[in-house]
């Protein structure tokens, strides 16, 4: 199915000649004005270097934005919007389109007035200003952040028609921050310290219980993403980073960390962010995000418009347990699988970009991707997940996604029975 480099180049050259021939054959005497006529941008001076002190995308990319689904929540204060995955490439999500999830709206905090307190089972309770935090050693790491409810609407069947809406509760950025273990060491942990409780400064006072082993492993207290200060909606001036674990634990607008000897069993880990099983029991503390992938192009928001011929399929894969050494794709709903081409850095607990090039014959396609992570885990089908956990949950759906592409290149969210 994968075309050779030689056939691609030959096809491209033939297409160029064919377009000229087609113009002559149709009796069109006027050449393409996009080639022969001077355009405005060729004859008029553009804006100077200081016209936009903070750079913005081209106006022709104004459609590349986060989007929400209004009927998902009662209001937009405790709500979510979605990353436009189908408009992106590579593995880094631009700061301006990283999805938002708020429980009490985005807090607008003056960093000069912000404080981070560590209390509880510590030798000395501490309060840090932002200036204090800037004096600690810092690290840079690229991690994905995925909401546990990402793809949650799909448990009961194909629902939302677009990978932005089915899989867009995720982003992947470089965080700059202080290893949490350094701040905890500064306070000194008592021998019975087993858990921490990070708390946000927003109106919802978000809290989650985190085992001390994770806190001392790879958690960061981050103040920058992709090199610039956190955006307000991403927790400015400081947030917690909990690599590979569900996004609700990455407490934004971080104001306090309490150290204790047992979990607190607060709202977000009892009535919310648990997995209700078929028998009525709940899976709790299901922190790690399992291996997952999605084809971003083609997809419902990114149809095939070029017609039959050489086609580039692409998508992203990730795992909360490591890296993604391999992704398989199928064009026929799982009858035949092909190994995709991985491209870009392979970083721990980060997005991975994959591609698969093929000659499309213009017939319908059933597109799927299947991720393999570095632990040997293989992404399951939706039916396998339902057999294991039923259909009561809205969290931790990492099942294989299917797009149906018709003869016109239009794509739709479907399931294969």
From TrEMBL:
InterPro entries: Ig_E-set, MoCF_OxRdtse_dimer, Mopterin_OxRdtase_euk, OxRdtase_Mopterin-bd_dom, OxRdtase_Mopterin-bd_sf, Sulfite_DH_SoxC, TAT_signal, TAT_signal_bac_arc. Coiled coil: none annotated. Its cofactor is Mo-molybdopterin. Keywords: Metal-binding, Molybdenum, Oxidoreductase. One of its GO terms (biological process) is sulfur compound metabolic process. PROSITE patterns: TAT (PS51318). GO terms for molecular function: heme binding; molybdenum ion binding; molybdopterin cofactor binding; sulfite oxidase activity. Residues 284-401 form the Moybdenum cofactor oxidoreductase dimerisation domain. Signal peptide: none annotated. Residues 103-264 form the Oxidoreductase molybdopterin-binding domain. This is Sulfite dehydrogenase. It comes from Salibaculum griseiflavum.
